Amino acid sequence: MAAKVWNRLTMGVCYYPEHWDKSLWQDDLRRMKDAGITVIRIAEFAWNKFEPREGEFTYDFFDEFLALCEKEGMQVIFGTPTATPPAWLTEKYPECLNARPDGTLLRHGSRRHYNYNSPKYRELSARIVEKIAVHLGQHPAIVGWQLDNEFNCETNVFYSNADTEAFRLFLQEKYGTLEKLNQAWGTAFWNQDYTDWQQVYVPRPTIHDNHNPHQELDYRRFIAHSTLSFARMQAEILRKHIDKRMFITTNGMFGHIDNHRMTRECLDTYTYDSYPNFGFPLDGRFDPKELNDRKWSRNLTEVRSICPHFGIMEQQSGSNGWVTRMEGPAPRPGQLTLWSMQSMAHGADFICYFRWRTCAFGTEIYWHGILNYDNRDNRRLQEVKRVSALMEKLQPVCGAASAAKVALLRDYDNLWDAEVDAWHRRLQDPSEKAVFEASQRTHTPYDMFFLHDDTQLCELKRYPVLIYPHALILSAKRADLLRAYVQQGGTLILGCRTGMKDMNGHCPMQPMPGLVADITGTTVEDFTFQSPAEAPVNALWDGEMLETPVFNDILRSHGDAKVLARFDSSYYRGEPALVENQVGKGRVLHLGSVFSLQNVTQLLRYCGVLTPWADTLELPEGVELTVREKDGRLYFFLLNYQSEPQTVVFNREVRSLTRGDTVCGSMTLPPFGTDVVTID
Amino acid sequence: MAAKVWNRLTMGVCYYPEHWDKSLWQDDLRRMKDAGITVIRIAEFAWNKFEPREGEFTYDFFDEFLALCEKEGMQVIFGTPTATPPAWLTEKYPECLNARPDGTLLRHGSRRHYNYNSPKYRELSARIVEKIAVHLGQHPAIVGWQLDNEFNCETNVFYSNADTEAFRLFLQEKYGTLEKLNQAWGTAFWNQDYTDWQQVYVPRPTIHDNHNPHQELDYRRFIAHSTLSFARMQAEILRKHIDKRMFITTNGMFGHIDNHRMTRECLDTYTYDSYPNFGFPLDGRFDPKELNDRKWSRNLTEVRSICPHFGIMEQQSGSNGWVTRMEGPAPRPGQLTLWSMQSMAHGADFICYFRWRTCAFGTEIYWHGILNYDNRDNRRLQEVKRVSALMEKLQPVCGAASAAKVALLRDYDNLWDAEVDAWHRRLQDPSEKAVFEASQRTHTPYDMFFLHDDTQLCELKRYPVLIYPHALILSAKRADLLRAYVQQGGTLILGCRTGMKDMNGHCPMQPMPGLVADITGTTVEDFTFQSPAEAPVNALWDGEMLETPVFNDILRSHGDAKVLARFDSSYYRGEPALVENQVGKGRVLHLGSVFSLQNVTQLLRYCGVLTPWADTLELPEGVELTVREKDGRLYFFLLNYQSEPQTVVFNREVRSLTRGDTVCGSMTLPPFGTDVVTID
Amino acid sequence: MAAKVWNRLTMGVCYYPEHWDKSLWQDDLRRMKDAGITVIRIAEFAWNKFEPREGEFTYDFFDEFLALCEKEGMQVIFGTPTATPPAWLTEKYPECLNARPDGTLLRHGSRRHYNYNSPKYRELSARIVEKIAVHLGQHPAIVGWQLDNEFNCETNVFYSNADTEAFRLFLQEKYGTLEKLNQAWGTAFWNQDYTDWQQVYVPRPTIHDNHNPHQELDYRRFIAHSTLSFARMQAEILRKHIDKRMFITTNGMFGHIDNHRMTRECLDTYTYDSYPNFGFPLDGRFDPKELNDRKWSRNLTEVRSICPHFGIMEQQSGSNGWVTRMEGPAPRPGQLTLWSMQSMAHGADFICYFRWRTCAFGTEIYWHGILNYDNRDNRRLQEVKRVSALMEKLQPVCGAASAAKVALLRDYDNLWDAEVDAWHRRLQDPSEKAVFEASQRTHTPYDMFFLHDDTQLCELKRYPVLIYPHALILSAKRADLLRAYVQQGGTLILGCRTGMKDMNGHCPMQPMPGLVADITGTTVEDFTFQSPAEAPVNALWDGEMLETPVFNDILRSHGDAKVLARFDSSYYRGEPALVENQVGKGRVLHLGSVFSLQNVTQLLRYCGVLTPWADTLELPEGVELTVREKDGRLYFFLLNYQSEPQTVVFNREVRSLTRGDTVCGSMTLPPFGTDVVTID
């Protein structure tokens, strides 16, 4: 549906008419248009503007504002206001509130303090959404709708009584009987058997806050289910009443949601809120050797996996920060442009800045918008105007697809298991970071690909190489899909602990890597975290060092499988660390460790997919390369994150879309400078 | 009223007759007198000694003890016992307890576990105070009264239901209508509007414990209001019944109190509890480059701003420490004297040690008094005797005023806003520390001056130079006062972010520095925290480096305002960092950054007020200088905080009050040694 | 009774028939036997297998399993299942749950979430224990019983209402009247007097969570009382029904229990759970200079003080770790043997591994057993078999006693006071660690000895030297015992702060060291923590440096007492730091500081007990020596904790029990290697 939504690169801004005197509205809209802004996102926290008291509905405020938008030709994305229930609501119906595990209710005064499962909140939310949809569903100024605001932002755990009630229903639906629940949750351990559904709760306070890990895994699936269900409720109401030309989206990307499924089932497009300045925190966490703002490219890669042509609903335009925390410096001149280009480089066809003017009161007086409190033109507004001109030059790129040839496989079961399981987490976090870093530093663009139950082989076959770092949880269905991928010519790279768990998080009584042992050609003979009492254990691969950090599976190879590298120290010195197995037209590489920048680089080189456009351009490490493709034409996005100029070398003639000229040989990107080039 | 209270330098000690067998009382009093102690502070935790069960009053215990005091000629400061409600009270009336934000009551077993607003606690407190006042109000042994003990010590936040009830009344009084409350609290942000007063609470648990910042600011004002109201209730009862020769005071100096107003409205004098040994904690926080025990001079400077001739109700005499925390070494020989002199150097005319003998049970067995558990004479008692002799020699100084020519401006609105606002806090804390450090290390004595609504220009005019580091919050009244000060010849130094907020903490839609822009001759064009990705940004001032740390306002000068210094790096290199503007007979210096030891030193030198007594004496950095003045005579206090001897050079002949002789040229202060000299 | 229990060195394993399909049982038992395992511990969490619903009892499951054990000749230790109450129980009777101080109940889902004092839990526990005892008390396969599992593991503090009720009874029993309670708790401080028993609680939330220290001390005694009472209840039920040949034990060693008394009054033998791999944590706490896994020898020394011939109910066989925390590496090849030998070296005559096969679900999927999930033979099973063979060779050692000549004195009053009192804790922790480290590094085996009210002089007289580091709490009875010990020839070493408190934790009004001043020949003139502002203060002893860290008692010697060492810096330079006093046939050494590796070594050397077997063998620091003695024969256990070989030198001919040959001169212990030698 994406094509329907973004036909051209479009610029927007978030606006809050309820924060300003009406006398400012017209001037604001005209200055926006003057800057190239054609869309505004509004109303996502404005419940009281429609229902100031329970059951009393009024539409005057937004009718007046939307009339002005229509008059000024400004397009509007309209938010449903359910992220901030009114004080009158939560005071009268505290059962709508979210709670801490000990039952303490999370009260009015922040945002997202509701739970998804309270019948009363569902009822009141459905009513306000329906009232708004009925009233505004055909409004000519409105082009799209945003559901709520940032589902699962602020918190992605829920402990209200309503959540326990809903969790029981979710589990009854999933398991049917308590016997099956007991089996799935391994309640034989520590005498945890349930004999009545009323004994089952969302995680509650326990000693050490230790909970059954299978319950915790199902609890995360339940939260995703709750969120989806709440989003679907709103989307269905909207669809009944809004004009067909309007789209439905939501914004942000937060935990404990199957964003892919939500997008597929409820949305027309997905939008992300991109704040790369979080990469420069004042709290002492800043590490100049890290990728900092460039790490947002990893988030954007995930967004692209959800929706190839997405939008940015909130693109950073000034310093971020709440009154209470998250202090950061102002974006440097050029960074607003850089980060806008970063979004487009990864597939964003809509860039909507947050926000027009910094709020003059409340928690977010330091979450700066384009304009400051003083409302004067400033350097940021100038930069927005330049981005606007840039976007016009880049219109040919609108709708172009990622040209990556490597994908990182992920699935929600393993992502959530790594939250529950500290051993899993110690593998997943560094490995996923390593794949991203290797991609960035070697200019090997990669995609993320999330395995779902309905994933088709053809989707995977687009990628010559797949990395699935630590698929502890595997299902037969997924193992079959991987087997087919490899048999048809794909290269699959797996790390340690693969195949250790089933879908419930139990450990099947079979040697690892379990369900994929037939395609890896390996058995895990022994395994250990690297000992803090020993030096790091590496491997030797054709006489060269291969990093094998954190955790080691000590492998045995079978059949024709070939040992590529062997551990070089500790009690398993000389044992296989990396095994390659030919399967059909493809192969599996099984690495008995966590991934690192070094070993991912070695593996991608071995697989022949490292730095795939080296023939066309040579780039310093400090410049990011992404490649988008449309109608057979490649667009190379070059992004300099450094405060120093960087030199790029083109080995063939390319044309710069931003400047119009052609270049061959070296070119200098200024500090924070960007370009997009293509080969004619 | 101060003169009335302390006619001569006086020495006291805290005593707890209820902790000891009566057989010890007489010996204790006689040994005190032998050491030069003429006053004791008693009874401040002894509620049960008057009302062992609800409504049963008895006076025998203290009657007996006070008779002995009268007989022995010992003067008594008598404490009201409301800091420790009895077990029977809080068990029967748990509504009197303070609570955590989640409602958990803070129970019996510690101290100060009550709230100020419970009607029942008000009633029971009023009754016990009245009973005691009626019974002892004319007692010949009593010279003064202490209200409660250390208001807002242990905690300065209150979350009981009674506090919410009182907060609503406070807000109704302040705002009249909910509409005005909603406006003042900016409830348009995040849909926080209140439609019923019952929806308004003291801060409650929210997600991230994030609260409306304007509510938080008012909440602090409310706590100050509650404390004042509770203190006033007690003071008014006492005044009705006590002899006119007796004074009323309270002790300590803690947060969320307008101590100036409380002193003005309720007290005859203010006393402070001084424990400089906290500067040597065992928990690893000790930094030998810090000012450590000398930092208590900063507290004493604040105390002096509340009450120029104050007392020390609890002066450290031994190691501090609860059973559970705050472990520290024993004060070294000489430090008891040094810290007593530190108090007098800053204006204390009464030194009352805590405590006569270390308690043998309870939480404070390590909060050592003069004597140890064993009750033997010891080195500390010897030192007290020497201080006693010293005080006799210093009697001419009693009532002398501070001779500082520089003042640090402060106001409670900005102090409390900096608690609420992390951005503000990152400015205020280092700047205030820098002013103190520069004062100490350059021997430029300074005062603190708190702006209140009724501050008069004549009060400010005593100071040729005022530093008001980060007056984010400004009112028109305060801006007018500053303007008048400057016009009449004063020099006003302002730092970054001045004028950013109004009294509610909203950001007015005007360029900074807002209400004082006319006297600074500046506009803030852009602003940013210094980026962790960049090297520290400094400025150049006539070719010399000027530190401009933490946060930068990038200034523009107007009219005749003169750019003194420009930033030397980052994207705003070359932009104005320090602007001077002549206004009437005076001038404003606007610095676009936080203050540091280096830049405060530079600014004070530029203003001609650095090291004002350099002609008279030359001091090493390790010695503190304070100067008191009386009847045209200056008294120079010299305090050596080092464990090594320090050499002082007198450029003219001075007379030592402690030794009686005259000196010219160099003199050695022994380790922890002190002296007071004057010029005849 | 120990001899009755362990007649020979025995190997066992923990097994959970309820975790596995019945089809695995026989194979498991047979493979165990094949490995030399003759005993299994079962059922300690299996309440639901007997009582799946309230009042419905069933025995089939364990009847079937025990029949198989009988058939296979496997001996069984049977656990009472009270550590994990069923979900039906805690859902219906939440009063059985433990709670946080704020009253939040600790819910189902972990283990040990019950409290000892709920009448309902007592009733249900008694019933299930009785039902099992009646049904299985004569079962031929059962050889012993384990009470509950790891009393006071997970948490050793209890805050339920039932605990408050029981605490009041405990205090009424102890004090009789509130007047006496008030006196004992020093309630005169901070007006804490109780006037009704209903005002008395277990510690509740207070400001700073600060509580009356005397209450806290009694609260720990109360927990020990509760645990003992609960254990006794179970033991008495069992004794009524089980066969006389069966023994009763419990496992683990956790806080707030008088394990000595519990063992004496309720058990036939004591067993410990030994997990030395906690010495290699992944969380960054690992310090390669520390003793790491060797620190478990300190725990085993404590276990030996409780029960000289104990068992290990859970001996580490694989990596430890919950899903949520405590990640660790796999034990290296050889460490399983090393740690088994470590247990035997300290007196264990029974080694029962945890567990047969790693659990495939639940919180402990990473608490690895001998076998992995895949159930294949592995290196750990091979190593168990080798340990089995080794144990046969070591059978002569069974029942041998420790030959240590030095003991560390301890008592529960001081141990618990050091938890309550941060000043005490800063002394006790480093001193106890120092004694252990000096013992290990100088090969001076030591015992721990716990003083109880019924300790007899003859028990102490076994040790020529006793170290009682910081007996802050002393009773006249204990002082008398120490006096008698010294008079009859013993050497007693005391550290700073000795004799500072009475049994209630009050500080008597007498000079330190109080009740033992007559035998130390000293008075403490002054005292101080070492100041962070000064360099560490040491002493000089005959021209050599003696460490005197952390806290200094500045001593004065009396009578014939001799000053051995004097402080060398700070204000007490030249004052006595170490005083020796001859008393009767013995002597007391009073050190005015905390103990350190250096000063303990110096003191033991001075007392002539350092490295007592140096004539026989010379050992590198990395090898532990323990010596057991039986029928006049010494057995030297040599344990190499290093991953490198270590060389031992025998100065006389010894015979290796493990290899059978004799050695003289040097011998190499392989990495993690061990041996036991004797002199023929």
Write out key terms for the chains shown.
alpha/beta, eight-stranded parallel sheet, 26 strands, 31% helix, TIM Barrel, nine-stranded mixed sheet, Immunoglobulin-like, 680 residues, homotrimer, Rossmann fold
The quaternary state of the protein chains shown equals homotrimer
What is the arithmetic mean of pLDDT of chain A?
97
Q: Using CB atoms under 8 Å apart, which protein chain pair has the greatest interface?
A: A-B, 65 and 54 residues
Report the biggest beta sheet of chain A as strand number plus sense, adding barrel if it closes.
Answer: 9 strands, mixed
CATH superfamily of the largest domain in chain A: Glycosidases
Number of strands of chain A: 26
**Gyration radius from CA atoms of chain A, angstroms:** 26 Å
Helix percentage of chain A: 25-40%
Count up the helices of chain A: 19
Distance between the termini of chain A: 30 Å
Beta-sheet strand percentage of chain A? Answer: 15-25%
- Which class best fits the helix and strand makeup of chain A? alpha/beta
Shape of chain A: globular
How would you portray this structure in words?
Three copies of one chain form a homotrimer. Chain A has 680 residues and is of the alpha/beta class. Chain A has three domains: 10-99 and 108-151 and 244-399, Glycosidases (TIM Barrel), CATH 3.20.20.80; 406-606, Class I glutamine amidotransferase (GATase) domain (Rossmann fold, 3-Layer(aba) Sandwich), CATH 3.40.50.880; 617-678, Immunoglobulin-like. Helices cover 31% and strands 21% of the residues of chain A. Chain A is built from 19 helices and 26 strands. In chain A, a hairpin with a 2-residue loop joins strand 19 (576-583) and strand 20 (586-591). The longest helix of chain A has 29 residues, at 213-241. Chains in contact: A-B, A-C, B-C. Chains A and B meet through helix 5 of A and helix 9, helix 15 and strand 14 of B.
